Each structure stands twice: as structure tokens, then as C-alpha cells.
Amino acid sequence: MLAIIRTTPIGSFIEVAANICREFCTVHDQDTLVAVLLAMAAARVDTANQLHQEAALLVGDGEATLAAFWDLLRRLDEIRHQRHHNE
Q1: What residue numbers bound the domain in which 10 lies?
Q2: Once rounded to an integer, what is the mean pLDDT over residues 26-52?
Q3: Mean pLDDT of the chain, nearest integer
Q4: 45-61 confidence digits (pLDDT tens)
Q5: CA quadruple 70, 71, 72, 73: dihedral positive or negative?
Q6: How far apart are CA 30 and CA 16, in angstroms?
Q7: Other Cβ atoms closer than 10 A to 13
Q8: What is the predicted pLDDT for the residue at 62?
Q9: For residues 82 and 78, what is the distance between their CA atoms, to the nearest angstrom?
Q10: From residue 21, how far is each of 11, 47, 48, 49, 77 by CA, in Å?
Q11: Cβ contacts of residue 6 below 8 Å, gap of 6+?
Q12: How many domains does the chain have?
């Protein structure tokens, strides 16, 4: 489902949920699947916003030092490794 929210516009979630119900034996109904897809998409947007805010704090208004830039890259790499570990 993570791949679905990465590639599918939110406006298509109802159709996607209907397809999932048709193709797979699931105990969840279409409305539940739409709610799960929306919650996952919202969490993904929230994470992106947090990363953006953290980057703005580290790098600032463009006057950042090279060290701040490298700190940002290290932090993003840590997040990438955590994400792969959790999947």
C-alpha cells in the first residue's frame, strides 16, 4: 500500500480501494481501505513537512556553512536507513 500512496493521486483512492477489494481477499471494506490510504498519505505529507522544517533550521536562509549542509545530508541518510530498516 505504501507504493500505492507514493504513485497514486489522492483523488483516485476510492477507485484503488475498489480494485483492492476486487482483486484480493480482504476483511476490510472499501471505505476502510480509503481511510487507511488517506491516513498513510497524511503521515507521508507530515513527514515531508518535518524534513523540510528540519532542513530549514539546519541550512537557514541560504547563508549556511558547508558544515550545516553536510549535517543535513547525514540526517537525511540516517532517515533513509531507518526507513529501509522499518520496511
Answers
A1: 2-86
A2: 88
A3: 82
A4: 888 888 777 777 766 65
A5: positive
A6: 9
A7: 21
A8: 58
A9: 6
A10: 17, 28, 29, 32, 36
A11: 44
A12: 1
